Amino acid sequence: MVKIKSTGLTLASSAYEAIRLDIIEGRLRPGEKMQFDALRERYGIGISPIREALSSLQAEGWVDREEQRGFRVAEISDEELTELARTRVLIEGMAVAEAIARNDTAAEEELVLAYNRMSKEHRIKEGMARNLEWEKRHRDFHLALIAGCRMKWIVQLGQQLFDVYERYRLLSGPINPERKELGEHRAILDAYVAGDAAEVKKLLAQHYQVTIDFIMASQAKAAARAAEAKPR
Fold first, then answer.
1. For residues 101-118, b (16+ Cβ closer than 10 Å) or e, as one string?
2. Mean of pLDDT over the chain
3. Using CA atoms, how far apart are residues 149 and 107, in angstroms rounded to an integer?
4. Based on the domain organization, do 68 and 159 belong to the same domain?
5. 20 to 30 Å CA-CA from 146: which of 37, 61, 100, 116?
């Protein structure tokens, strides 16, 4: 049970944030039916703010509404994952090109700082547990990469794309302990500092493809295990 605490947000806004986070982190699974009574019990609030939150989440693609059947958590697919990666490369590549053209020293310094903060954290803890602080700093790095374009709508779209992509990564299960992800981020940073927008875009495409390959391999293994477990 995840009770929503009183904050400066409205109850509907708080419900939106809580449900959205549970979808991203996989506590609400793809295709799961969103029962109002269960949600009310889970978050400790009434049906009206939950209904309002679900309507907002539907508009952003986090949940689907079925006529006469209520809401379900949005499904996932390999096709959507591939499209997400391509969209991120296009949007972020454009944002980086604009940021570099602006020659914004402050934005570059923020990106370097975000990288340095991320580099001080280990991606995983003992026992392969997720390091939430690394994940926060990882998000900060990717958002700092596009922030220098100083275009509000591009930055907001970049944030949404990151979060949808993160959902896929977290649903894939175990982290790949052999991946040298810090080196990938370092290469992206170096290309940005060198003013090479085309190289940044190429490295982003490679960076996301590694993630896609791992996610799809993990899903294939999970499907194979599930098939083997079925009685014959």
1. eeebeebbebbeebbebb
2. 90
3. 9
4. no
5. 61
Inside any domain, residue 68 = yes
Residue 215 has pLDDT above 70, yes or no: yes
- Output the CA–CA distances (angstroms, integers) from residue 81 to 86, 130, 168, 196, in the order listed: 9, 22, 7, 27
Residue 30 belongs to what domain range? 11-73
Residue 179 and residue 86 share a domain: yes
Q: Around 6, how many Cα atoms within 13 Å sit in the side-chain half-sphere?
A: 0
Which amino acid, residue 183? G
Q: Are 197 and 92 in contact (CB under 8 A)?
A: no
The pLDDT of residue 125: 78
Q: Is there a single domain that holds both residue 188 and residue 218? A: yes
